[in-house]
Amino acid sequence: MSGLRCQIGPSVLNADLSMAAGEVSRLVAAGADFLHLDVMDGHFVPNLTFGPPFVKCLRNNTPHALFETHMMVSNPEQWIEAMADAGVNQYTFHIEPVKDIEAVCRKVREAGMRVGLALNPGTPISAVEEYIPIADLILVMTVQPGFGGQKFMHDQMEKVKWLRNQYPLLDIEVDGGVGPSNISCCAEAGANVIVSGTAVINSPDPADVIALLKNTVESSLHKCSV
């Protein structure tokens, strides 16, 4: 697993969106490897957040940051071109509402973005297994998508362990209730891409939290590579 890199991405949705540009700059300065942008359409999940114009505004203010959009939407295909135009680097969509996952993956890549496939807690790993070779990242949700502040689901680490055992060099992301109290179990299971919202955003020193998360994951990656 020496080729894997730890990446920490704060969830922008947890920040004060009235000051989004400043918050994004603050998180990048604190050591964020990427910014996780939760896009909700009010259909796939009940909540409604923001779309391509908001993402494009953030991109204009933060030209060099890596943006991942987490597409909690019923029709991820219809958002691809607009998000690519907005400057998104990683397009991660949920497989549950998609009929032709391979076609959506292809269109995301053709638009110049990396492909991420997301799984709800109730979705078995078998549902995504055949598509892993055409994806850059698998996102294992550790809460039900659409709401913040939920309790971390430890049982989802079995999915992470299976993925890491089968695909040693795959980027495996976890999202939902992740922070200093449970980062060790995420790292030990094999996750190397960490989304953390409340734990980072609400900390008086986000840089310290990001450093703690990163050091924990990197330590586990190092142990597995020796």
What does this protein look like?
The chain has 226 residues and is an alpha/beta fold. The chain has a single domain, classed as TIM Barrel, CATH 3.20.20.70. It contains eight helices and eight strands, in the order βαβαβαβαββαβαβαα. It has helices spanning 20-29, 52-61, 80-86, 101-110, 157-166, 183-189, 198-201, 206-225, and strands at residues 7-10, 35-40, 67-72, 90-94, 114-119, 137-141, 171-175, 193-196. It has an eight-stranded parallel β-sheet with strand order 1-8-7-6-5-4-3-2. β2, α2 (52-61) and β3 form a beta-alpha-beta unit. α2 (52-61) runs parallel beside α3 (80-86). The longest helix has 20 residues, at 206-225. It is globular, with a radius of gyration of 16 Å. The protein starts with 6 loop residues before the first strand and ends with a helix. The model has no long low-confidence stretch (mean pLDDT 95).
Any chance you could write out the topology, listing elements then pairs?
Elements: E1 7-10, H1 20-29, E2 35-40, H2 52-61, E3 67-72, H3 80-86, E4 90-94, H4 101-110, E5 114-119, E6 137-141, H5 157-166, E7 171-175, H6 183-189, E8 193-196, H7 198-201, H8 206-225
Parallel strand pairs: 1-8, 2-3, 3-4, 4-5, 5-6, 6-7, 7-8
